[in-house]
Amino acid sequence: MVVLGIDIGGSGIKGAPVDLSTGVFSSDRVRIETPQPADVPSVVKTVAAVAGHFPPATSVGITFPAVVQHGVTKTAANVDQSWVDAPAEQLFTEALGRPVTVLNDADAAGVAEMEYGAGKGVAGLVVMVTFGTGIGSALFIDGTLVPNTELGHVHMSGLHLHGGDAEDYASDRIREQHELDWEQWGERVQTYLRHLHGLLWPDLIIIGGGVSKKADRYLEYVDVPTKVVPATLQNNAGIVGAALLAERRRTTQA
């Protein structure tokens, strides 16, 4: 049985089969640059190319950087606007020739961390925050996902942001664009996480995305009144979570 996870990001589209007993890849990951512009036909074609590197899958889960409701992408923060109200699940199902589950990318990463990683066994309120091209978020109450939170787009008063979005202040993209050192960026992350803490008072905050594997460079500059830890699965979490939820859906519907 092959369970495939595919993670659509602003810079790359990555996929791998996942061993759901352990939460690790069962073969090497394949990555293809995200097409520019990242419009519907181009992204669907690239996802099909990634999937084509692996044997036909029993279940396919695909993450998307957007609010996803009933298989439809409702927003398009870091991809082409043609994805707004696109029937993503239907499009990918037709392209791959098998049923596909599409979900928000941060939700997928959070599910993986709650099942296999830093959030496993943690009760109460857990927030997963992914730093990359934007800022994604996943919210869990006693292990149950509250889907499609958009906490990367909260407005933070007192900060002169482009449009007011937190992700235009503290995303990894902003760190690179403004050539911030790790201390400078860590202070921005701290400001953002303190803002989230004041809104939610979580029991745990998990930092995901590519920067999770560099936590030793910036976490010392992040002081928040709750526990903050890097994601255990690091940047693989989205692929793992997508595969897990796709297989859960398949077995539920069987």
Description of the molecule:
The protein is α/β, with parallel strands linked by helices. The protein is built from 8 helices and 13 strands. The chain starts with a strand and ends with a helix.
Helix percentage: 25-40%
- Report the portion of residues in β strands: 15-25%
Supply Rg. Answer: 17 Å
Please describe the biggest sheet, giving its number of strands, its sense, and whether it closes into a barrel.
Answer: 6 strands, mixed
Number of helices: 8
Would you identify the regions where 5 or more consecutive residues have pLDDT less than 50?
Answer: none
Quick summary:
With about 250 residues, the protein is α/β, with parallel strands linked by helices.
Identify the notable features of this structure and list them briefly:
globular, alpha/beta, six-stranded mixed sheet, 254 residues, single chain, 8 helices, five-stranded mixed sheet
Topology:
Elements: E1 3-8, E2 12-19, E3 24-25, E4 30-33, H1 40-51, E5 59-64, E6 68-69, E7 72-73, H2 88-96, E8 100-104, H3 105-116, E9 125-131, E10 135-141, E11 144-146, H4 167-170, H5 172-177, H6 182-200, E12 204-208, H7 215-218, E13 227-230, H8 237-253
Parallel strand pairs: 1-5, 5-8, 9-12, 12-13
Antiparallel strand pairs: 1-2, 2-3, 2-4, 6-7, 9-10, 10-11
Helix pairs in contact: 1-2, 3-8
